[in-house]
Amino acid sequence: MEFEEFAARAAEIEAETADLEIERLVAALLADANDDLAVLARFVQGRVFPAWDSRTLDIGPQLCYEAIARAAGTNVTAADVEERLAERGEIGEVAASYEFGGQQGLAAFGEGTDALTVSEVDEELRTLAAASGSGSQERKLDALFGLFNRCSPEEARYLSRLVLSEMRIGVGSGTVRDAIGDAFDVPPEAVERALQVSNDYGLVAEIAREAGESGLSELSLEIGRPVQAMLAQTGTVVDAIEDWREVAAEWKFDGARVQIHYTREEDGVSIYSRNMEEVTDALPEVVAFVEEHLDESAILDGEVVAVDDDGAPLPFQEVLRRFRRKHDVERAREETELRLYAFDCLHAAGEDLLDAPLEERYERLSALLSAGVSERWLTDDPDEIAGIEGEALEAGHEGLMLKNPDSTYSPGRRGRNWRKRKPDVETLDLVVTGAEWGEGRRATFLGSFLLSVATESGFETIGKVATGITDEKLAELTELLDPHVLAEEGRNVEIRPEVVFEVGYEEIQRSPTYESGYALRFPRFLGVRDDKDPEDADSLSRVRDLYGGEG
Ligand code: AMP
Q: Is pTM, for the whole model, over 0.85?
């Protein structure tokens, strides 16, 4: 297809406002694309490379203005182009306002007078993207000038937008997905799945045309071609247990997401960031770790965390700094140690696992990777989950992730199957008025604590907190409360109201179980309020207000 025709079609699409009509026009463009199908499926979205591909054109606005100025004539400068841009607000409009063509220059040699074709533009931009090293900016400028020099105003409009990756013709990824379905008569879900697996509109369009729905369904993950990461919504433990009964609980690490691709045959590791950029070279110790501990071809999902000399996590900015590091990687490696926590497995030994339940994927992961697998607990017990969160926080990590053990892996989705626990909106300072001795290994510690709110006439119970934290902490609390024990009966201990705990919770509910008439859902011990006397603890009327406020 000639580039002129692509420009005309793009203009037609841009002028259209109705979504359905836009989709029809894109479908028609794809149906007429012949050999240019893959390229056009990307160009309409302002892309030269597929989303998984880390290559970029690396053409900054300034270079583009320069190329336009040069093609526009000897008396036009990049500053003039910028000035027009300030007036007209959009680069396509500016590029289309010049007359190109008369200029001679290095890149205008050869086929200078022929009409530009879509494939020629694509090739030229790919060559230009590959330019690196000294003088590469100059070579890019020459090449881009050469292209503009052969453009009509309409072609220049869309070329300038394409090189700056801002097509702005109202075509989003969903439009192209549906257009591929329409153009080649395949269901949009089949296109969607193929896109999730490949992140390549060009490839998917070609397969849809050549091999239809069955061809699309055969498309599988490929090592070296990253997929979008599955994402999480916020949620509560209470809801998660209600929705799934059993919850897969994991620590939430505050680092950077990584997707690790490994081929056994080549002992080759590549690592991608959350937005599918390749970061392999910046993380040599993670590469070495994977080479040592993985011996089957696989795609893994996880988090990389920077740690200090004692293994305690550092703020996530430290990892991001490493991601961006291009030079002196070895020195950076000595400065900050990185640790991998792998939590998912998308592909193992030639088998795609996207559709396998989380629990199966985790089993595969544990079997494949001999170290660096993030721990996971399968439980329906809120106290146990509170303990897991307490340990995560104590170890310096961010908190808790809750996952549906039966869920499949949905790339790019911020769905309900992965939830990060919502931070508490409020905490309460409550008085300890009772406790219970632990069992088994913990028989010498108080293991759960009865909590009360202050009322006008004294204290009324509102819930229990089973700290579930370390034995060390329980021993400390036992010692702290020991002088205040009033009476004991079996495992139950009555305690004089002296000590105040800060307690986190997800929800307050009405409950006949406790004297106050309220109970806390997912109560957690956060700390001792040494600075507070029992009279300063939160009152029943505050609890009433908070309950009312939750509506
Ligand atoms: P957020 O960035 O706040 O939406 O939280 C989701 C992010 O938490 C993910 O993209 C991961 O980078 C990170 N994360 C940390 N620990 C885990 C985990 N155990 N499972 C999944 N994601 C995790």
A: yes
